[in-house]
Amino acid sequence: MNIVVVVRQVPDLIEPLEIVPSGDALDLDAASFILNESDDHALEQALLLKEAGGGSVTVVALDFGDVDNTLYTAVAKGADRIVKIACDGDTPPAPRDSAAVYAEAIKPLEAELVLVGVQAHDELDGGLSPFLAAALELPYVGVIRGVKADDAPGTVAACKEFPGAVMARMSVKLPAVLGILGADQPPRYVPVSRIRGAMKTAQFEESAATLAAGELLLSVSRLYPPAPATRAEMLSGSEEEIAGRIAEILAEKGLVK
Amino acid sequence: MSDQDVLVLAEARGDALADVTFELLAAGRELARATGGQVLAVVLGPNGAAHAPALAAADRIIAVDDPQLAEYSPEPFASALREVVEAEQPRAVLTASTSIGWDVAPLLAARLDAPLATGCQAIRPDGDGLLVTASFCGGKMLAECRVAASPAILMMLPGSYRPTDETGKGELEQRKPAAPLEPGAIAFEQWIYPEAGDVDITQQDVLVAVGRGIQQQDNVELAEELAQALGGAVCASRPVVDQGWLPATRQVGKSGMIVKPKLYLALGVSGAPEHQEGMKGAELIIAVNTDPKAPIFDVAHYGAEVDMLDLMPALSEAIAARKG
Ligand SMILES: Cc1cc2nc3c(=O)[nH]c(=O)nc-3n(C[C@H](O)[C@H](O)[C@H](O)COP(=O)(O)OP(=O)(O)OC[C@H]3O[C@@H](n4cnc5c(N)ncnc54)[C@H](O)[C@@H]3O)c2cc1C
Ligand SMILES: Nc1ncnc2c1ncn2[C@@H]1O[C@H](COP(=O)(O)O)[C@@H](O)[C@H]1O
A56-62 and A2-6: which strand pairing? Predict the structure, then answer.
């Protein structure tokens, strides 16, 4: 199966988030970037499908953040081709605008299956994956955990998550776009030596696709961290002191007898 | 029909409506009061009419049925919803950020070239447009957004509105799509239920929840010991289950279980909205996290900014000491 995966860079939430002086955007210069978690699962799912049934995995990304490292890592894990889309300026486009450029880059690849993470935590205007499906005029289903080749040729079976650890098994006729939340296995680990090896041998392909800003449907006027109505009463001291205080609170509430 | 109406997508879950549907109706009522429009509830599938009494907060209940709507699949659901939205021309369409919402809201927005906002917590009119407060970055940031065009497709974060006792006209209209729906390339096959036999975390009084802060599988043992000392069970956030360190039946949150224990001890859990959805209702929440800005402290009653790996053994000991 010829599989295309889209991977995005998102601000690492472990670092404090900062806002630009005008107050209407994240300060991306102050952020450090990591691979979007559900995109990492999309890549893992693609590699598992390739290992099970053959084919190829092409990874497509906007040239932004720490993308080179992400793409070399993908090669070290088993991806066959890595494609970069030029992205001028320091701000990546909103998901809806970027759907068009990803679609332009993906069309010539003749993918049977396109896998994208179902959500990126820095997006406000809706998941990239369904908009990409619309731009490619392909069918779409998202919130998928696990994809397997199906008995019928040209189809895959995808499990869609519902509340209560319930899943719906869906049969998907290819070509299609799937919004991945989790892979059948956790994303694999690759040693740094393999990534260094990929840096020496792997070649980026540059996509000719260009970004065009779409109509502004959603405009952000202000960003701010949430001001909680009630904030937890913070316990301080050493671990032992805190543990003692928690045990005391639980005893007061009759939770330890 | 009026361009000031608010359309709510109701979601059935088994025989009942999903709890979040009542929150959407409350949000719809509040917005419609401000716009002067009506609240329309759309329910797709074979038992739509049976849900009408529960949807009494709406003025009009539009139940659409077609053989393709018997079980969920994206193309028939998105097409049926689109037909109603095109006929009614509402100012806003409210869906929840559920498994179904994450498919149909963006598909609808793409097809109508309409604005879409995710993570919506509050909505109010602003001239001809709407002002939306939306949460992103795992609940660490809020955005004030202006949506100018109609219909605005808004994916509401569960837990943002309290269900209302207010009732609307509650008039039921049963419809069939103009043409029978096409099945689409993606078809529902079967429901898969979790394997039984594991602990039912929804029935526990005490839960020790571990998040990514647990760092490695070996450390789960420390949480098991603590849970044992407290007479409860261990549950987890999604990344821990994704790693295969605990079974899916132990996951709390949007795609996991909704739990309401007497004590929820959240260790190394950041408190993303999808996790909070499953545990906000706990009677007592105590959170331990090395990041003082972690959103979990916004819902916790008590918090401590320490390393969970140090705290777990200390707490197991302190509990044992109390028990004598
Ligand atoms: C459609 C959809 C459905 C989802 N469903 C669910 C769901 O059902 N349940 C769920 O949980 N998530 C769900 N998620 C994922 C959710 O968005 C978050 O990604 C997830 O909840 C984060 O888990 P976490 O808090 O364990 O990890 P992180 O967000 O990575 O947080 C780890 C926390 O641990 C702290 N920490 C690190 N080390 C230590 C230490 N030594 N001591 C103390 N603290 C430490 C860090 O400060 C951080 O706050 C869903 C997402 C989507 C898109
Ligand atoms: N339309 C639906 N939307 C979401 N979940 C559903 C739906 N139908 C069934 N389920 C899930 O499947 C379980 C049992 O459904 P059922 O077997 O159809 O009665 C429910 O508790 C839900 O978790």
Answer: parallel
Q: How far is CA B39 from the centre of its chain?
A: 21
**Half-sphere exposure at residue B256, Cβ-oriented, CA atoms within 13 angstroms:** 28
- The CA distance from B261 to B283, in Å, is 6
Name the minimum distance, in Å, from the CA of B235 to any CA of chain A: 13
Q: Could you report the average pLDDT of every consecutive run of 10 residues in chain B (324 residues)?
A: 92 91 98 97 95 97 97 97 98 97 97 97 95 96 95 96 95 97 96 88 97 98 98 98 95 96 98 96 97 94 97 97 86
Instruction: Tell me how many residue pairs between chain A and chain B have CB atoms under 8 A apart.
Output: 265
Which residues 1-30 of A are in CB contact (within 8 Å) with B?
11, 13-14, 16-17, 26
Structure tokens at A213: 């800003």
Residues 6+ apart with CB under 8 A from B210: B219, B220, B223, B234, B235, B236, B237, B240, B246, B267, B268, B269, B308
Q: Which two tokens stand for residue B198?
A: 């594991």
Find the CB nearest B311 among A13, A176, A242.
A242
Tell me how crowded residue A237 is: count the other CB atoms within 10 A of its CB: 12
* Helical H segments across B264-307, by residue range: 273-279
CATH 3.40.50.1220 matches B201-323: yes
CA distances from B323 to A14, A246, B262 (A): 38, 14, 19
Phi, psi angle pair for B222, to nearest 5°: -60, -40
| Domain spans, chain A | 2-207
What are B35's two structure tokens?
């716009």
Q: CB-CB: which of A186, A232, A253 is closest to B244? A: A186
In terms of CATH architecture, what is A2-207?
3-Layer(aba) Sandwich (3.40)
Band (A215; pLDDT cuts 50, 70, 90) = confident
**How many angstroms is it from B16 CA to the middle of ligand 2?**
9
